[in-house]
Design brief:
Layout (H helix, E strand, L loop, with lengths): L1 E2 L5 E3 L14 E4 L2 E7 L14 H18 L7 E8 L5 H11 L6 E6 L9 E8 L2
Parallel strand pairs: 5-6
Antiparallel strand pairs: 1-2, 2-3, 3-4, 4-7, 5-7
Length: 132
């Protein structure tokens, strides 16, 4: 973690893809971790993992988990998750992959159909996570 000021702390994980713009991977404030949207990018080389909407969802969640761990948290403690997808018609596949990741007491969630996502991805996921 890197402190940016007294009210908030920026979080960076080498185990997740680097930010592709002027934003932090996550910010800690007042006991919460606000994670930026995670794309399905391979953290090693930044390439898009685009086999299916389900595999993209899993990669997004794994990238979020890496950011959470850098902050001393776990994605399992997410309070709210938002899924953005360009393939809302494949929602069942996305939902199945997501459900396998959050087996008990899943967080509140919103799913939004969008026209396009960065890097040509079909799925992006962000989260608000409780620090424990």
């Amino acid at each position: 973690m890197t402190t940016t000021d007294q009210l908030r702390t920026a979080v960076t994980s080498a185990d997740a893809p680097a930010a592709i713009g002027p934003y932090s991977q996550a910010i800690v404030h007042d006991g919460l971790l606000y994670c930026s949207g995670a794309l399905p990018l391979d953290p090693a080389d930044g390439s898009l993992v685009a086999d299916s909407p389900a595999s993209e969802t899993i990669r997004c969640l794994e990238n979020l988990q890496a950011v959470c761990r850098a902050a001393g948290a776990e994605l399992a403690n997410a309070l709210r998750v938002t899924i953005y997808t360009t393939q809302l018609e494949r929602f069942a596949d996305i939902n199945e992959a997501y459900g396998a990741y959050f087996r008990s007491a899943p967080p509140a969630r919103v799913t939004v159909g969008v026209a396009a996502l960065p890097k040509g991805a079909h799925v992006e996921v962000d989260a608000i996570v409780a620090l424990t």
